[in-house]
Here is the input.
Amino acid sequence: MRLFSVCWKAVELRAGTDPLTGEAIADPLSLGASPADCAALEWALRCAERWGGRLRVVSAGTESCRKVLSDAAGLVPPGSELVHVEADPEWPSEWVASCLAPHLEGSDLVWCGDVSADRGSGAVPAYLAHELGMGQALGLLAVDLGPADLVSLEALRRLDGGRRERLACREGTVLSCEGGTARLRRASLERAVAARSAPVVVAAASPRPLARPEVAGIAPFRP
Here is the structure.
């Protein structure tokens, strides 16, 4: 059976600000997934509907991940998996990717948001592709799913300098999309209530830092 995975991150969508110091004030009630992560889940849901298969939603972080996984539980079909990887949110992107990768193995497609709403680097999808030995299609602006008999899609990718690139992607790809590519559907009241008791698999993180590449030189983009 095909497997479509999604990486979600719990972020404060409406954190307050101290008027005197300018420091952010934590607001646990505003925890949720960013628009880009929501779009990623919607594309995974459409993939499962188009090609058949099950879904797996993985989130790395503190106990706040349970909130976003509960939100996802109201949308994913029965038999889907929810995984919370206990990790420190301050870890660098390559550490987070090394913790997520073991729970994404065997996926036909891995969907991620292209950027984190808490001003993260947005580099986790690229590190995931490296860890999993999969292709990567990052910074997608538009997605068009292929025929029902083959896991494939066409995507428009953002490049530097206002350029665009068209990609043909097949199974075995990590994809990151912008929030405007799709609008996440809403869960029914019955599903939303049932999602509060949805089982979540909790896994301990064991980060494995990656060897940093050596930069030989930097040059302008040449088409």
